[in-house]
Amino acid sequence: MLAAQTFAFAASCLLGLTRGLDIGLSTKCVVIPKELGMCHDVGYSEMRLPNLMGHTSLAEVISKAADWSHLLQTGCHPFARTFVCSLFAPVCLDTFIQPCRSVCLAVRRSCAPVLACHGHSWPASLDCERIPAGEDMCLAPLSKEEEYIYKEFPKPTCQGCPAVEDAFSYTAVLEAFCHSNFALKAKLVKRKADSGGPEYGIEGQVEFINQGLLLPYDTRNLIQQWLLINESCAQRMTRSNRSIVYIMVGDVKQGKVFISRLYHWQRRDSQLILATRKWRHHKC
């Protein structure tokens, strides 16, 4: 699977960090290229070459950084993009500015489980303890307030793929709604990504049946990230090239969003339609 290969390469490419960068090398400032879109709007427009990964040309930077785009799209941590860009496109100052250790630890804590979901561990070469602990001369120190806010924000998580329910009564669906925190209807699509492989996403808006703890968050984006993290499940849910509508039922536990039941929404499915209508006045 393309994304699995991407995660594998992303993990392995960090091995270059252990080799380090010979600061005695001549460095230069260059404008961050448009092809390195993930590092635009990070607070600066010029980067140093060679970078902290030891890449010596823009072509090499663009090629290697592209393998991280899938991980960043999962939204595994709000500072993940800043962290990755500080390595691939370090800010152009008189000296190299490393990412702060607090950022490295926070990103590792949140993004390592995403790598694990795709069968890869956080590379031992990227040991956060090797980054100086001082927060005065590093990029984007993470405040306790920012870390607290992120921890409180519900996040999709790696999980087993729930089976699509195929035989049920409307009363059974209502019972499932009662025992879950949220239920929503979303149209899933499979597209061709720029890399040539498949890409899974949400078409249109998410329609709530039961908002639960997902209100007032950006639920569409949460489900999009859930599909990216649980790509094997997304693949099973979108076997054809046609868009498919699902009712997704789940829970929010300790800040983690889990999908527990899937119902394939079809207009001819009277039981599912009846359940969604009766839910408006149903008492559990």
Automatic annotation (TrEMBL):
Keywords for the protein's UniProt record, in alphabetical order: Developmental protein, Differentiation, Disulfide bond, G-protein coupled receptor, Receptor, Secreted, Signal, Transducer, Wnt signaling pathway
CDD domains, A to Z: CRD_sizzled (cd07452), NTR_Sfrp1_like (cd03580)
Keyword ATP-binding: no
Localization in the cell: Cell membrane; Secreted
SS bond partners: 39-85, 104-128
Residues in NTR domain copies: 161-284
Mode of membrane association: Multi-pass membrane protein
Domain FZ: 24-141
Region forming the signal peptide: 1-20
Protein's name according to its UniProt entry: Secreted frizzled-related protein 5-like
Organism field: Microcaecilia unicolor
Gene, per the UniProt record: LOC115479075
